[in-house]
Amino acid sequence: MDVDILIIGAGQAGLGVGYWLSRKGSATFAILDGGSELGQSWTSRWDSLSLFTPRRFSSLPGLRFPAGLDPFATKDEVADYLKRYAARFDLPVELNRRVDAVEVVEGRLKARTDAGAVCAGHVVVATGPFHSPYVPDGARRLSAAVRQLHSSDYRTPVDFDNPDVVVVGGGNSAAQLACELADTHRVTVVSPRPLWFLPKDVLGVDLYQWLSITGVLNASATARVSRYVRARGDAIIGKDLEIRIKAGQVRYLRGRVVDADGGEIILDDGSRIAAPAVLWCTGFRPDYRWLRVPGALDDAGEPTHEGGASPVAGLHWMGLPWQTRLNSSLINGVDRDAHDTVARITG
Q1: At 30, is the pLDDT very low, low, confident or very high (cuts 50, 70, 90)?
Q2: Residue 31's closest CA among 13, 1, 9, 11?
Q3: How far is Cα 231 from Cα 156, in angstroms, rounded to an integer?
Q4: Tens of pLDDT along 304-314?
Q5: So what's the pLDDT on residue 208?
Q6: Angle between the N-to-C axes of helices 334-346 and 12-24, in degrees from 0 to 180, rounded to the nearest 10
Q7: What is the pLDDT of residue 73?
Q8: CA atoms within a 13 Å half-sphere pointing along the CA-CB vector of 84
Q9: DSSP string, 1-64
Q10: Which residues contact 333 (CB under 8 A, 6 or more apart)?
């Protein structure tokens, strides 16, 4: 297959680029995704997962996210929305098309898949940065009797039959899951950074509305407020966990897990914590080994780009954290970055 533009990844970032290309109508393009259905990256997560961004800030260009009784949509609602979005704009999505390699062949970019190669003048990598679940190396030294799960494998509290669970991590996933587990388990939260809580609403107006009004939500990645947020780390939206910690319903310890021994995890200050069960909410690491294009990645395997534009001719990035602004990796930030990417490609 030969197209003008190939988009790799049919999540919100890839679909947003597809929307703006479909408005242009002057270039042939395809959107490849290795999943068996749209929204699979959402439906494959834990059962109770919901967005921490309100519905009004969860729309892709051209189609509002549907209203609901709860201002925060569930993972299944997000997946359904992505399916409706692709159908509404008749986007050329091909599922079960995992890209195994992208290479430069005779001056063009060639993507190799299990169903044949695709050649394109431009390739947009819209797979996001969250590929491989990360756990500290020391986790291997926990006893086989310790039940360990990464958040990507967790589904419901019944996954842990031990009444005591250590949740490692300090982001929104750790907060949501610690609160869920605390209803049925004794929970200890271990975070390398101080937990930073923000309310879901202020004076009856949702937080994201305030962030939008003040310009923070769309702040440039180089703006002072963006540099502050990046240095401090992701905020936890909502104060449920903070309330439980203050009430003594959840134990909180600050420290970085550096090792483990038998039934204990070891923190950077040398302290040991009994860990009969551990839920690793320690995020993901990017894995772009399939991108065999000189200059596309730096020495650490991270994307080399400026605002999503790769120094490699014809290569582009979408959906990266801090790609151009504070909300680049959120659904709310797709519109501007996708529009700019398509404008860069099509002139």
Answers
A1: very high
A2: 9
A3: 32
A4: 999 999 999 99
A5: 87
A6: 50
A7: 96
A8: 14
A9: -EEEEEEE--SHHHHHHHHHHHHH-SS-EEEE-SSSSTTHHHHTS-TT-B-SS-GGG-PBTTBP
A10: 218, 325, 326, 327
pLDDT of residue 263: 95
Both tokens assigned to 284: 């993901």
Q: H-helix or E-strand containing 197?
A: strand 197-198
- The residue among 99, 85, 89 whose CA lies nearest residue 11 is 85
For tokens 């409706």, name the residue.
84
CB atoms within 10 A of CB 47: 12
270: number of Cβ within 10 Å: 9
333: tokens are 């930030």
Domain architecture of the chain: domains with CATH: 2-131+286-346 (3.50.50.60), 134-196+233-280 (3.50.50.60)
Q: Summarize pLDDT for 144-185 with one digit per residue, the tens.
A: 999 999 999 999 999 999 999 999 999 999 999 999 999 999
What CA–CA distance (Å, rounded) separates 9 from 15?
Answer: 8
Distance CA 212, CA 39 (A): 26
Model confidence pLDDT, tens digit, residues 79-100: 999 999 999 999 999 999 999 9
Angle at 86 between CA 85 and CA 91, to 5 degrees: 140
Tokens of 208: 């994201």
Distance CA 213, CA 220 (A): 15
Q: pTM to 2 decimals? A: 0.93
CA distance 42 to 61: 19
Binned at pLDDT 50, 70 and 90, residue 131 comes out as confident
Helix (H) or strand (E) holding 208: helix 207-213
